[in-house]
Amino acid sequence: EDEFYQSPRHDKSLKRERDDDNEWEEERYTDGVKWKFLEHKGPVFAPPYDPLPSNVKFYYDGKPMKLSPEAEEVATFFAKMLDHEYTTKDIFRKNFFKDWRKEMTSEEKAIITDLKKCNFSDMSEYFKAQSEARKKIKEENERILQEYGFCIMDNHRERIANFRIEPPGLFRGRGDHPKMGMLKRRIRPQDIIINCSKDSKHPEPPPGTKWKEVRHDNKVTWLVSWTENIQGSIKYIMLNPSSRIKGEKDWQKYETARRLKKCVDRIRNQYREDWKSKEMRIRQRAVALYFIDKLALRAGNEKEEGETADTVGCCSVRVEHIKLYPESDGQEYVVEFDFLGKDSIRYYNKVPVEKRVFKNLQLFMENKEPDDDLFDRLNTSILNKHLQELMDGLTAKVFRTYNASITLQQQLKQLTNSEDNVPAKILSYNRANRAVAILCNHQRAPPKTFEKSMQNLQTKIDAKRDQLSDAKRELKISIYLGQINNISKKKAVQRIEEQLMKLEVQATDREENKQIALGTSKLNYLDPRISVAWCKKFGIPIEKIYNKTQREKFAWAIDMADEDFEF
DNA sequence: TCTCAAACTTAGCAGTTTGAGT
DNA sequence: ACTCAAACTGCTAAGTTTGAGA
């Protein structure tokens, strides 16, 4: 009702059109004239009748009979309803039969004279089968999951992540991939290597086929592997994130990051010292490490040219990817980064850096072509070797994990207001999460329907605002009239205010999230114990932060962390 | 030291399901 | 009951890291 009778001022699109077009203002509608011009495309019709497959038969008087499409269509309507009791009622049957006969050819009409002699059961079965088919597919998927989706590892039944072999198809790749369009070929049993324990019941290859190999390597975690034909790399079937083996690894990862926390000051001092080193390789290493630490860049392995899209990370950044500004927007020593990173996602950032870094960058860029490596004396293995010496288990990506987690913790501290209600606290959480996603450059394409859905939300908010002022006015009137029972009116105002707040929070959250993907950091970079502790501290149900899958993945953390966990 | 294979984590997207709001 | 957006899931590409072998 609301929507239909909404006055034009609620409809933003209409309002804009009227503003844009002065003629509108001149128009007057009188004497019952509703409009002067109307144009549209008309309605969309129901799809035409698709005749039944020839093996689905209609029987009359016990004999199969081919119906004309018109008669058949009407017959299918009856057949689809056959299970309902009303199809046994005389009136229903009488009306149906009368109307059905109208659709028949004269031959059919001559033969089909008695509804009692009609047998629709074959047709009915067909439709039942069709709707069952959907259910069957679901059930079959469930059965396959139960049979192939689990394994036994060390006395536990563990979920497998990707137990289906990747189907053949045309390779797309991300970004400007030189191999896009190539055929990804079908994987056969003779391509497959099975890994399982010697004393287990080995999986059987399909009849008449053989596995490439069955091995028993308990130093690795994969169950199945094959070589993919596009890049020639190996693909694996491994366990689900909820499994012990993945959970422990995840925990270990965050523990390493926490160890970095203890010595990060030392390491930072060290690389700052190294900016002054006499040796070029050490300076380059130190500047690269500074970027990895400050900007959460990825290590940046070198890649084989022509095999993959041209993307870079820290160590593989080229001269053409950065610009130096001794001064920009009132800030000194500004570096502008612009390159394609993992998945061909653009990294664009303009940041002030320390003077020494800036001077070093100028030095590194001297006498180089745009497509030369910025860090020509550095690669990931040199960098990681150095990091290994600074701390046991330290690699470039630990900095990403560390900086992501520490940022979440610090942002949560800063943004959470204990007075807030639950939705407002969750907004704070999302904002903290967002800060991390921005740091790690986790982007997404704006959802296809973003603009529209934002508009819809705005319409809702406008309507809610009006509703609120109406409710307030009513309250005022009732106070003015000295009505004592205005409690319900007060409550109404309060309720609407809350609803409005919620909508506004939602709009803010959505707008801020337009191009940012929160999932990746949540799943891979943020120590879940920080979130668990935060939930406990502020009485937020963990379900508000983690869905079922995530709770399974982070079961170890939910078990482990109490409210004063410190990363 | 370099190269390459292997193993494992991280990543965004498309399609589907769920659920909130009316 | 219905609609639309949000949430979720599956998928698999694209990274990082390690270590063996030349």
From TrEMBL:
Keyword Phosphoprotein: no
Keywords tagged on the record: Biological rhythms, Coiled coil, DNA-binding, Isomerase, Nucleus, Topoisomerase
Composition skew (Basic and acidic residues), residue ranges: 8-19
Molecular function (Gene Ontology), one example: DNA topoisomerase type I (single strand cut, ATP-independent) activity
Enzyme nomenclature, EC number: 5.6.2.1
Enzyme class label: isomerase
Coiled-coil region list: 454-513
CDD domains found in the cross-reference section: Topo_IB_C, Topoisomer_IB_N_htopoI_like
Region annotation (Disordered) ranges: 1-23
Location of the DNA topoisomerase I eukaryotic-type domain: 170-539
Compartments it resides in: Nucleus
UniProt-listed Pfam families: Topo_C_assoc, Topoisom_I, Topoisom_I_N
Family affiliation: Belongs to the type IB topoisomerase family.
Protein name as annotated: DNA topoisomerase I
